[in-house]
Amino acid sequence: MTESTGAGNGMLDRREWLQLGVAGAAALGLPACAAWDGEEEGQTEAPPLHPPAGATDADWETVRAHFLVEPGTAYLNNASIGMPPRQVVDAVAAGYRAIAELPARGRSELTAEITDRVIPELADLFSISAEELALTRNASEALHLQTIGVTLDPGDEVLITSQEHPAGRRPWEFRQVREGIRVSEVFIPSPLPAEEEILSRIEAEIAPRTRAVAFCHVTRGGHLYPVQAICGLARDRGLVSLVDGAQAVGQFPVDLSSLGCDAYAVSLHKWMLAPAGTGFLFVRRDARDRIRTAFAPDATPERPQFGPVGTAAFPVRAAIGSAVDFVTTLGLEAVEARCRFLSDHLKGRLAELPDVTLLSGTLGQSAPGSTIFEKDGLDAVAAVGAIETLASAHIDEHQRDGHNAIRVSTHIYNTTAQVDRFVEALARTTG
Questions:
Q1: What angle do CA 295, 317, 367 make, to 5 degrees?
Q2: Full-model pTM
Q3: Which of 193, 224, 176 is nearest to 366 (CA)?
């Protein structure tokens, strides 16, 4: 990047970085952004971003113009991987351009952006200190690091639940095979029972050699676990509590200090709309004597060194800041309300179909944006391709937890018209 594109000292200017937009992309020789969903042909620049006044389609119309989805496509699979807005895409491109033009300076500028701005802003958003946060490639990497970091002896036991994602389960199975620890699964029904039953099921499995409990904040099927209560139970029984937050962060406000967990694994490229390949690991400061780094033999509680070592994808990590700015400008409470508005509309439309069974829980037990359901006689895996063909709508299957279910995950860039189009296609889908 030339000196003229940065601040006078050669560092990339923060406002230029975060507001790069289409004009900035053109200045860098990058292609202009496409209009959102083909609704405004000829659009060359996204409108200013403002907090929406409500949760309706009309309230979020200008926000949708910041996304680059292929025209005519209804992307309803955000829980798999999110759709970054154009300012995030442009920030990634600008970062790679900076490294391509002058690698040493580009790396230095991007590293400063990550250290001085991205990490502190993430920490502030989740109510933790910057020293408690280590960037990772995704939640899977963070889950692996927090799992292998827990101090355990052969024969010690860890409790997990029956609704864990493979990324949350496999690291414990790895330790069970390699180190002789015991992994016990607590069966939690789907849909979820009442909070008291969840807690009693977990407490009933705690044994003299139980040392930790690991579980997800939001299940793959969109069920919302009582995280604070489970962490309180673990603390009262002297157990380490480790949480998979991949499906939670970005759907609604998450205060990691209030949750009371000892460690929390995050994916930023789902609901937070950051670039693919971004996440972080949180380890509570006073848990550093029980959860240790996998990388540094000289680590101490004062210098825990949880982050993976070596060269990272600096442009991708620096662009996390653009995603944080985008989400915080809108407000996570507004994001939650919009996601809930769309999923409620979907649930209402599904209720009109006589052969559909809704599996998502009640308001207090369901995440705002994920909905799972079954349709009589319809194979969920086959439905994914059929719905894409019929309606250009992208969904996912949920053949687990005893279900042959379809998962639809709606985010702020979706519309009620897209939901309606999906439901109409679903009604015509059989076999």
A1: 95
A2: 0.89
A3: 224
